[in-house]
């Protein structure tokens, strides 16, 4: 009798939990893509998912969030971005979306007036937006800034323009050659344009960021990411020193976003990775190395099997000799780490696919990634599926590049570029990202580009190469559970299921049901990480 009484008392009180989110349309992104109404959070994890009534009865919670019918998704994961670089970019001159070189020079001048000494650093210019679509020349920068060094990076980070003062500091001379890069010289004179590895000659001379600048970069980037619903970001290429900074900021509780860090390809990083082993904490993962096979299509650094359609006899270039990638693949396979390689051109992709295939030897679960997998020769798709090589793609690249990519590639090659559906079919899953700051950080732009394949003006009307569009469900999976899987994190995040981190977003509209043209306008109302509210729309 007593026992019965005690039992019924407990039933009334219910189980304790921290948070109940109710009256929502919760896309759980579980295997069935089931929709639920409510869920309960305890100790930063999802405790139960179900109906509002049932969960209200069963649990005694400290806090209730009534979503009032709004849509909830798992926190978005960006499988390919440059988080730190984006944060640093927020502290320099933003040249994005500027439609002429003259206006760019104007904004550089304005910045120089407000910031009276030191290097002048800017980024985001894109000659494809300008009337002439040609690379700029440093002349005006030399007249305005004869002494102060200036470096302005192209939007893709694969080319830059430097003034003479900056070129002098790096000791760059006309007609100088560099492997994996280009120093543009016209009629015996430097134009200031540097491509890929040539840019590094200058960036190595820029004084290191102060601790304050570095910390601010991480924290500002985090703030902007939370505002668009990102709860995990893959940072594709960092030095180990920055991993230490991340750990400090996370231990202090300042940096809450979850980061998946790929280390940059250099000996020091490899030594530290091998010595210290993989790092896996709830908010930080370090177990992979990022390589660059080639450059980018916009700056004609992508390595193609046949010459560029708009530059005869030019095939682009590799960033390192083939042997380097071969050696690294063998080494990382032996040590058990993940290899992630940037490959844009069909030649770079073929080379990396064959190197990976030679090491992976058929079906496996190493999840080695090809970042971008942008232009694939029709004969090479099969390597992805046969060897479980993971294409990691950024749908906004398709819609940002589509208007000029055809000039670089011609009408045939473009057909198997940005071929996301074909790539998805290879393994049955496909992680999505943005490559920000190359593209906007918004996951909604990614979603829109993946399913509608249109730019923000709604063009082209029928969508670009729609045979390679993704369904909405596929796109959501790509931004959540499949992105988690590419990071070996599918058991702890990427869906709203019992036992997983309580990372989720409340949106003002339902991504699965609104009209296509409304997708880029969707707003995040609230973002949660580990059951903690980290963003609320004002
Ligand atoms: Zn990138």
Q: What report would you give on this structure?
A:
The termini are far apart. Strand 4 (38-42) and strand 5 form a beta hairpin. Helix 11 runs parallel beside helix 12, helix 14 (395-413) packs parallel to helix 16 (443-452) and helix 16 (443-452) runs antiparallel to helix 17 (472-479). It is globular, with a radius of gyration of 24 Å. The chain has 538 residues and is of the alpha/beta class. The protein is built from 18 helices and 24 strands. Strands 8, 15, 16, 17, 18, 19, 20 and 21 form an 8-stranded mixed beta sheet that branches. Strands 3-2-7-22-23-24 form a 6-stranded mixed beta sheet, with helices on one face. Bound molecules: zinc ion.
Low-confidence region ranges = 1-12
Measure the end-to-end span.
54 Å
Bound molecules: zinc ion
Mean pLDDT: 95
Number of helices: 18
Helicity level: 25-40%
User: Would you tell me the structural class of the helices and strands?
Assistant: alpha/beta
Please give the number of β-strands: 24
* Sheet of most strands: 8 strands, mixed
Form type: globular
Strand content: 15-25%
Oligomer: single chain
Query: Radius of gyration in whole Å, from Cα?
Result: 24 Å
